[in-house]
Structure formats: structure tokens, C-alpha cells
Amino acid sequence: MGNWAELPEDILVLIAKRITLFEDFLFFSGVCRLWRSVAVNDNFKVSEQIPWLMLSNKDKPDERQFVSMRKGGVIRTVNLPEARGKRCLETLGWLVTTSEDGDINLFHPFTRVQINLPHIPNFEYYSVRRNKSVSFISISKAVLSSRPEEGKDYVLMVIYAAGYKGRGHLAFWRSRDKSWIFDNIIWFYDINFRNGLCYGVDGSGTVHAFDVLGPNPTVPLVVRYGPSHGSSAVLKQPYVVESAGVVLVVHRIIRRVSPSTFSGDDPYIFETSGFTVFEVDSSANGKGVEKTSLGDRVLFLGDNASVSVDTSRFPGIKANCIYYTDSFKRGGNYMGIYNMEDGSLSPCYEGEPCSLICPPTWVNPSPH
Q1: Do 73 and 199 share a domain, yes or no?
Q2: What mean pLDDT is predicted for residues 135-148?
Q3: Domain F-box, which positions (predicted)?
């Protein structure tokens, strides 16, 4: 076999353009100097990716590690002083960072591009960390309508004033606006975008759709669904996600399993015990249809904008499963894999304890 480093550049460009996964593109760039010179953004077409698990080490506040579910270990470590001491949520590969003083930014962890958003002192509710008297703007979820780098109008929708169970009101910022718009009528548990509409699920299981780029952005269209949020004995954390062209509402079933030595006001440890999945029915009398299988699809749920991935394109990822991180962030099986076929739970990564300020979250990798 000849020397791989001596392949003609035009051949290397053809190879680079056939790579579909960003993590494989990184390995391509690490072969040698010539290959690295070809591994430029113009030679990588952004497409559906397998999310990486982003970890923040409490002893290294500037550092973020990214774990590949295919490779089973840390694939990249990035120094991000811009995210130091900030709460990080993810949407379309961007981080939405919030700080104690109300600063909120869009930040791309790999290009280091940062977009400063309007200050949010008018977000009235704050969340007090239970082990320190430190207040953070209480945003539990943030989703983009499209990637800012695509050069068109986009919207950032957030759930704010989020209480202990994760519910909150909606606020959104449009890229052409200078301030936030608020909708304080309904409490939502999760939000996501599909075909330009923002879908939100409330505690009754009802899904509301908002045309936030239209003339009436705060007026919801209701898509009827079904089962309620749950009782105090068995909590059900709802998520909304598009999968294979349909809208799904997923309930993560959470149980209080044992007393805790935690010094906060709740004496229990919470654990994920399972999931139920419903396909939203948009008909007038629709109640949602329970799904017992995701087929070749896999869901990634947590503090990120929930996503569905076709595993038939990516060997090494378990089909018909739900990869999750636990937004309750205390004790128990706080991140793992739920198998829809047999109802089993298994760890997705076993590593060192992470920062409470920036807990594990899924990130959709992209070089630009």
C-alpha cells in the first residue's frame, strides 16, 4: 500500500465531501497536515448528526468534554472560557448561555461565534441553587427555529420562570427584534420547532402550536392530545419532538425512590424509571396514539432541543431507544439509555461527576 499522505489533493477533497458525520471528519483531519488542509468547512456538508454528550467538569470550569455515543468515549475537549460559570442549553448545535446577572447569549462551541441577545432583567422569576445562595435566570429549555448561520430570519423560543418540576412560561426573541416577547398565559413543560411552527406541551398533555414569525405570534393553535402530566407520586416529564415527519409527545416517568442526604428542601432522590411515547393526533377529537416502538429511530432528550435520528444511517447507535439526560439533576440514574423493546435502562456514559451549574446535555455537532 502506498503512502496515504501522498494522495492527490483532488482525491482527498472527494473523500472529505463523502463524509457525513462530523466526528469522522475530525478523525480525517487528524491523519496528517495535508489531510488537515483539506478538512475545511466548505468540504463538509451539514446534515443529520448523532448528538454528542457535553460534560462540564466542576474542577475545570472553562473546559467542556464531548462524548461520542458511537465511539464510547471523549472525542473532543474544548476550552470555552465564554461558558465559565454559565448555564448552558443546546439547540441546533448552538449553546444558549445564561448568567446570574441576566446576560443571555447564543454561542457556537466550535466556531466560537457569539451572538449577544437582549438583556433579560424583566424575566421575573429566578431559580435558587439548593446548595448555594446563587440565583440564575430560570430558563429550562431554549429552541431555535433555524440556524443563525443560514442567513435568514430566525426565532429563539425559551421556557422561563421554570419551577422545580420544569414548567414555565414562554418568551421569544426574533432576530429582527430588539426585545423579548412574552406569553404568560399557559405553563409549558417542553417546546420544539417543526416546519416553522413552535410546538409546546402543557401539563394536561395538550400540544399548542405558535407561528412566531407570523402576524399573531402569541396566539396558539391547539392540537389535541391526551394523558395528563401525572401525580405527586409518579412524575411525568413531557417532551415534544419531531420524528419521521410526525410530532411525538414523550413522557419520562420519574419516581421518588429513597430518602436523600441532600441539604435542600426535598428529602428524596429522583430516578427515571421508564418512558411512554404518543403520536400527536391533529384531528378534532384526537387523543394521541401510544407507540410501542420507534422502529429505526432513536430519540435524544434532556436540556437540549429534543431530536430524533435515523439509526439506519449510523451503525453503532442503538435503534428503538431513548438516550436521555435527567433535568432533575440529583442522584439516581441521571443519564442513560431506555430500550423501547424490553423496557430496560442502561448507562450511556459512566464518568466523573459533572458541574451542577452546567449539567450533561446533548449537543448537535457542526463545524459551522
Answers
A1: yes
A2: 82
A3: 4-46
